[in-house]
Amino acid sequence: MTNPESDAFVFFGATGDLAFRQVFPALQAMIRRGHFGGPIVGVARSASGIDALRERARASLEAHGGIDPQAFATLSERLRYVNGDYNDPATYQRLRAALSDSKRPLYYLAVPPELFATVAEGLAVSNCNQAARVVVEKPFGRDLASAQALNRTLHHCFPESEIFRIDHYLGKEPVQNLLYFRFANSFLEPIWNRHYVQSVQITMAEAIGVEGRGRFYEEVGTIRDVIQNHLLEIAALLTMEPPVDHQPDALRDAKRRAFDAMRPIAPSEVVRGQFRGYRQEKDVAANSTVETFAAVRLHIDTPRWSGVPVYIRAGKRLPVTSTEIRVDLRRSPHAVFDDPPAHEANYVRFRLSPDVVISLGARIKAPGEAMVGENVELLARDSTTDDMMPYERLLGDALHGDTMLFVREDEVESAWRVVEPALGDATPIHEYEPGTWGPAAANDLIAADGGWHSLG
Length: 456
Description:
By secondary structure, the protein is of the alpha/beta class. Helices cover 34% and strands 21% of the residues.
């Protein structure tokens, strides 16, 4: 059965940074493609009016991709503005009036997490939640207990089928291609298990620092910011069993089972780091122990993956900006040629950013008389373009009621269960020099599997 399309788009936090960076560009792109034709209502606490909001939309598009004159004119024409305090019932009455005869609005909460419950309850009390959908930004809580409390509040206001927990990483073309490559190619399935896979590495490196977002980073740190969501989602896509069919809940069921199989991360398998100079950043405590780098060793307790470690590292002020997955295969048990015993094993590599690469590491005979080999990389795909922005894709899916690329409540809670032992000061903080690959202890964590691979 086809889900009915939402007939209005409402975004709370319309004058905020997230709307500026992501929402306005996504809306213009959807209008340009003819993917949405309803009214667009911005809600914010700022007393500025519709003209100011239109100017902010213009500035947003000038800074993020450019203005399409025809699409922007349509966006400006459809744009409406409601100002008011999110705790004030009158704000939601004004919103109802702005929605006019819209019957199935989509609400997008581009507000700080502490306001999610306030806005959701305001929509419910005013009956603005009837036949509506809601999109909630990460983080979905700060730990398992707060995630469960947030889910209870959301369920009081909306059915789970109409709650869209957005993780923009799942809307990226390379991440979707990772899922497709796994299950569309028969040659991969026979080797995608503990009998052939030695270890898995997932790295998200950023050369930048906190970029003036010290207050935000003091609240989250690397584990909450990217490991609990983005990188565990990637680990689930890599290790889950095939979905039973192509329906959205089949994929989400398969991911949830992968999360359930992840062993909670023991403090002994976590290394936290903080780049030198972080404590001098604006809004950062002088004695902060918040991590700007984390490396973890993850275990998947399933027959397919038992005994195969999954290493995850992420951090700021590292040498490069890149996200990459590398699956190292076991060496051949029988040596036929006179290759050195320490030669590089076969591998599968997925680079998700800044360029998109899928490749296979192999050995071929080196030129000459001797039967010795050399390492080569067989390129399966090399692409640098993604025509659709993640927020355009995800907001478009939410408007159509397509839940496949959104995170379900049980996934969220299971992911928090995995990282909870590593949160806070459960482990010491190690200082590292900016421009390096984090503290030395991160290398000790993976030494038994040959160390971290260079991203170059």
